[in-house]
Amino acid sequence: MAQIKIKNLLLRTQIGFNDHEIGKKQDLLLNIIIDYDLEGEEVSDEPNQALNYRTICKEVIRLVENGHFNLLERVAEKVASYIISIDRVKSVSLEVDKPHALRFAESVSFSLTKTK
């Protein structure tokens, strides 16, 4: 089993349900840990055998930035459901961080893990 970590993926989306949040894009930071099965790429050094984290990131960006969400929980569920649907992926853990969600806190975050 192997692991890929995508750290501090900065995205902008419509998130929130309070009056001052509606219709405005806000920053979210995603940290994603993907556990998956190797298929020999660590020995062969063949890119076409590797789990393509660039493709995964592109789809995560599309899912989040084109959506509208009331809750961090929904963002996490949508991203985790996509990643866990990839055949080689065995589990995904992610944290969705919303900077400046509270006046006296750096951020608020929600974490989720899905396993096959």
TrEMBL record:
InterPro entries: Dihydroneopterin_aldolase, FolB_dom, GTP-CH-I_C/QueF. It comes from the Bacteria. GO terms for cellular component: cytosol. The keyword Transmembrane helix does not apply. It catalyses: 7,8-dihydroneopterin 3'-triphosphate = 7,8-dihydromonapterin 3'-triphosphate. One of its GO terms (biological process) is folic acid-containing compound metabolic process. Residues 4-114 form the Dihydroneopterin aldolase/epimerase domain. Coiled coil: none annotated. GO terms for molecular function: dihydroneopterin aldolase activity; dihydroneopterin triphosphate 2'-epimerase activity. Keywords: Isomerase. Its EC number is 5.1.99.7. The keyword Disulfide bond does not apply. It holds the Pfam family FolB. Belongs to the DHNA family. PANTHER family: DIHYDRONEOPTERIN ALDOLASE 1-RELATED (PTHR42844), DIHYDRONEOPTERIN TRIPHOSPHATE 2'-EPIMERASE (PTHR42844:SF10). This is Dihydroneopterin triphosphate 2'-epimerase.
